[in-house]
Structures are given as C-alpha cells and as structure tokens.
C-alpha cells in the first residue's frame, strides 16, 4: 500500500512531533470535543467542506472556501495532511479527494479510523494552539483532475470502461448506470480491525468484480462521498486509470440519463 496515499497508525504515531505533519479530524465538532481526538489534530467537520446546494459542481465547497478552512486550521500548502474520521475513513477520504482537487500535494488517509487508533495509541481532549495561515488553493487543471462530468461519462459508456457503483444493494437495484458492477465500498474494510484488508486480498476482491488495472474505471455513488474511499484505495494500490464521477447518480438522474433497474445474476 502506497504510504504517500494511505498511512498506518504506527506511521502517524512516529511523526506526531513533526510540525509539518498536520492531522485533520473530520468528525462532527461534538465528537472532537466530547469523545477526544488524536494528539495535535485540528477539527474540520465533514459538512464544512461539502456544498450540498450546487448540483452542477457536485458537492465540492469551492477553492476559496476550502482554502479558508485550511488557513483557519493553521495548515500550509507544503504540510503533510493526514485525515481521519470514525467511519472506516469514508468521510476522511472525501477530505483527501477535495484537497487533491484543490492542489494540495501531500494529503493522506489514515488506515482505519479513530476507533482503530484508540485501540493502540493515546487520544486527548486538549486542543492544539493554532496559528492561522494564508492558505492558497491551486485547483487542478481539468485535464489533470480525476473528476469527470456527465459528458465524459457518456463517452466512457461507449468504450470498454467498467462503471463501479459503490452503493448498497437496494440502491443499486433501484437505479444504476448501464452495465455497472456493484462494489460496496465497505468490502475493502476488515470489520474486526476496522482497517483495510491485506493488499493481496484487496487485489483478489477487485478482480472478482472485474475491476482490473487494464481497464478504464469510472466510480460513482449518489453524491460522491462513498466513491472517495474507493478512489483512495485504488490509488494506494497503484491503479492509474481511475475516473471519479463527481455528480454521480444524482447528476445523472437529473439529466434523465439512461439507467438499469432490478437485480442482476451476480447479486
């Protein structure tokens, strides 16, 4: 697993004294305050970097709004950011994807979540002293971004792309993109450890679903949260031809895109 994308609790624990490693807690503020958090972590709640009002742009908050959030959290452009939540990493992965899209070069997901960390490492209720910065976002060029719009998705449907639906079974059967395969994002997580399954197991699991390195992969869910986790995992495994449909099924249905319904034989 590529440590420039996903890091273990031990990796992070050994670097907590490094001032350029910034830990971001994306849980609700009451969890950060009332339950505790990782030492040195700053709070950037999930709903603060998600705009539910702009369907055309998906749910990204906008470059200026995101830069303000990171500046208020005392983060510099050159810092190494490690994000975590307490939901197997799905909300933290959305933060990772957002930071990548707005040009932060070194942002990583903590393997596991708060509960996994808490089993072997100390937590605290002390808030760190934060000195705000003048963070400047540098959004990716559209040609370099993994995000694709509806037109690009329509084009990919004409090719041999594999469309990966990361939602639950009932959602998949209610409506899905034509030819999509269902790959519940939680399948990559070990229920006991709350961390990602071993790399060999992940590779085998992906292959079972037809998700292989030689294929163009397009991810979608409903509002681009769950695919963030799958995107980070695939990136950490070295998959290169992965696209991220930011508008996801919400955007597709709004445009009356073609869908399939009902169960499939493999389900």
From TrEMBL:
GO terms for molecular function: transferase activity. Residues 17-126, 157-261 form the Rhodanese domain. Keywords: Pyruvate, Repeat, Transferase. InterPro entries: Rhodanese-like_dom, Rhodanese-like_dom_sf, Thiosulfate_sulfurtransferase. Residues 120-146 are annotated as: Disordered. Pfam families: Rhodanese (PF00581). This is Thiosulfate/3-mercaptopyruvate sulfurtransferase. It comes from Natrinema salifodinae.
């Amino acid at each position: 697993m590529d440590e420039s994308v996903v890091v273990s609790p031990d990796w992070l624990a050994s670097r907590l004294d490094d001032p350029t490693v910034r830990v971001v807690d994306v849980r609700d503020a009451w969890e950060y305050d009332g339950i505790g958090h990782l030492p040195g972590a700053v709070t950037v709640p999930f709903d603060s970097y998600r705009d539910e009002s702009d369907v055309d742009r998906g749910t990204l908050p906008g470059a200026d709004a995101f830069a303000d959030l990171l500046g208020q959290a005392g983060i510099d452009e050159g810092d190494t950011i490690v994000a975590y939540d307490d939901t197997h990493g799905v909300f933290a992965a959305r933060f990772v994807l957002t930071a990548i899209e707005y040009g932060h070069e070194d942002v990583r997901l903590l393997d596991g979540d708060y509960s996994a960390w808490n089993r072997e490492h100390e937590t605290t209720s002390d808030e760190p002293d934060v000195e705000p910065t003048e963070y400047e976002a540098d959004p990716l060029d559209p040609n370099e971004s993994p995000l694709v719009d509806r037109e690009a998705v329509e084009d990919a449907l004409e090719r041999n792309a594999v469309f990966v639906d990361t939602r639950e079974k009932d959602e998949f059967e209610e409506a899905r993109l034509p030819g999509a395969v269902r790959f519940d994002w939680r399948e990559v997580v070990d229920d006991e450890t709350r961390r990602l399954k071993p790399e060999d197991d992940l590779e085998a699991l992906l292959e079972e679903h037809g998700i292989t390195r030689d294929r163009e992969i397009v991810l979608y869910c409903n509002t681009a949260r769950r695919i963030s986790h799958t995107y980070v995992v695939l990136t950490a495994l070295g998959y290169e031809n992965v696209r991220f449909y930011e508008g996801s099924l919400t955007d597709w249905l709004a445009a009356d895109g073609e869908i399939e319904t009902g169960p499939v034989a493999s389900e």
